[in-house]
């Protein structure tokens, strides 16, 4: 009653043993593919972690630089500016990790929160009554009167260019893991299970436990079994080309590191612009929002002189170098895995599974 290992000679197998063999080949095949995938998956997961760690350290550095701008140059509003600064960097982090948000909405929300502070602490430092309604009016007016000039839009443009590639790379790496996981759990067809049993276990039914399959026979069986996996070859090659493009984009002129550390200078320029246009802004705000209460002996905004700092040359050299090295190492490794799906049958038929140095091997019917 054997279905797979039928043979003219007497046999020591039963139908039940054949069923056990089918379960065994399915389990072994999954384990073999998992072992092949392990190094590639380990590499991608490691890079996701390293990328996120380096990115987080750059983000923390840029956030600290931005906070220090308020503490050194705009002390009257430093305490109240802490929350909007924190929100801005949280939004940037979420954007890179793939959240449904945009760089533009994050930056403009930050400037909406910043304008009431700049207006009441720097342009008109005598304002005492900053009610919720008045603050909200200032926030809404910001969108119409554009107190920060071109600097808010420039910041959106610069950040969008550099953060886009980082966001795409982050999503692409997650996609790579998904693809690898899918190939691991690709179901074997009944025909494939039978072919694998015939190749690996039918010799046992004749007592030939040490004979292994011929190389060519193994390749034919494996290619048939893994045809659906090898069909991924063209898309996998394209995927690696895309990864290469994204890592090059990140290292090009729209550098993530430069854009993040430039946030501080962009905000400084924007605040200076608003202060220079203080009288015109006050006139427009008074018309739209009314006049707020003033302290006796109004302070002149001229008392606050922002420190316009030169771009710092020291900085996060380590985080920057680490990110660049990780990108380079990773893309070189991924380029070597271009043929990963096309050569999966060859790699499964390598090593102990087949007979390489002997003159006798199993061809599916007999020892040859």
Report on this model:
There is one protein chain. By secondary structure, this protein is mainly α. The protein has one domain (15-292, 316-349). It has helices spanning 15-73, 75-96, 103-123, 132-145, 150-184, 190-200, 202-205, 215-225, 227-230, 233-251, 256-276, 278-289, 317-336, 344-348. Helix 1 packs antiparallel against helix 2 (75-96), helix 6 (190-200) runs antiparallel to helix 8 (215-225) and helix 10 (233-251) packs antiparallel against helix 13. The longest helix is centred in the first third of the chain and has 59 residues, at 15-73. The two termini are 26 Å apart. It is found in: Cell membrane.
Mean pLDDT: 84
Q: Give start-end ranges of low-pLDDT stretches.
A: 295-315
* Helix/strand structural class: mainly alpha
Please trace the helix and strand order, writing H or E for each element. HHHHHHHHHHHHHH
Main sheet?
A: none
- The N- and C-terminal alpha carbons lie at a distance of 26 Å
Q: Cα-atom Rg, whole angstroms? A: 33 Å
Number of helices: 14
Percentage of helical residues? Answer: over 70%
Mass-distribution shape? rod-shaped
Count the E strands: 0
Strand content: under 5%
- Summed up, the domain count is 1
Keywords: Cell membrane, Glycoprotein, GPI-anchor, Heparan sulfate, Lipoprotein, Membrane, Proteoglycan, Signal
Family: Belongs to the glypican family.
InterPro entries: Glypican, Glypican_CS
Subcellular location: Cell membrane
């Amino acid at each position: 009653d054997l279905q797979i290992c039928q043979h003219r000679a007497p046999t020591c197998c039963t139908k039940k043993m054949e069923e056990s063999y089918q379960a065994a080949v399915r389990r072994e095949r999954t384990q073999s593919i998992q072992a092949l995938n392990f190094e590639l998956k380990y590499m991608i997961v490691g890079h996701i972690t390293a990328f996120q760690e380096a990115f987080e350290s750059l983000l923390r550095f840029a956030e600290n630089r931005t906070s220090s701008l308020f503490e050194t140059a705009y002390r009257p509003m430093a305490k109240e500016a802490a929350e909007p600064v924190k929100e801005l960097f949280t939004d940037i982090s979420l954007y890179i990790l793939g959240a449904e948000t945009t760089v533009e909405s994050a930056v403009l929300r930050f400037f909406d929160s910043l304008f009431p502070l700049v207006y009441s602490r720097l342009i008109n430092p005598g304002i005492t009554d900053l009610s919720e309604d008045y603050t909200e009016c200032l926030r809404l007016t910001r969108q119409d009167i554009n107190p920060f000039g071109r600097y808010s839009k420039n910041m959106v443009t610069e950040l969008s260019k550099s953060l886009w590639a980082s966001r795409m790379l982050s999503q692409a790496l997650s996609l790579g893991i998904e693809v690898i996981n899918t190939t691991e759990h690709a179901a074997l067809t009944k025909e494939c299970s039978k072919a694998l049993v015939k190749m690996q276990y039918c010799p046992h039914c004749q007592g030939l436990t040490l004979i292994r399959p011929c190389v060519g026979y193994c390749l034919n069986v494996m290619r048939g079994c893994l045809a659906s996996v090898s069909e991924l070859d063209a898309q996998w090659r394209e995927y690696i080309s895309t990864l290469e493009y994204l890592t090059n984009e990140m290292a090009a002129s729209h550098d993530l590191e430069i854009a993040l550390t430039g946030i501080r200078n962009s905000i400084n320029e924007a605040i200076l612009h608003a202060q220079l246009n203080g009288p015109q802004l006050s006139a427009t705000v008074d018309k739209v929002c009314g006049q707020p209460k003033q302290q006796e002996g109004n302070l002149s905004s001229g008392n606050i002189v922002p420190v316009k700092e030169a771009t710092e040359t020291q900085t996060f050299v380590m985080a920057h170098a680490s990110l660049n090295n990780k990108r380079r190492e990773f893309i070189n490794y991924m380029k070597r895995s271009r043929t990963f799906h096309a050569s999966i049958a060859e790699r499964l038929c390598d090593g102990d599974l087949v007979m390489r140095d002997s003159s006798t091997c199993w061809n599916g019917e007999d020892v040859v």
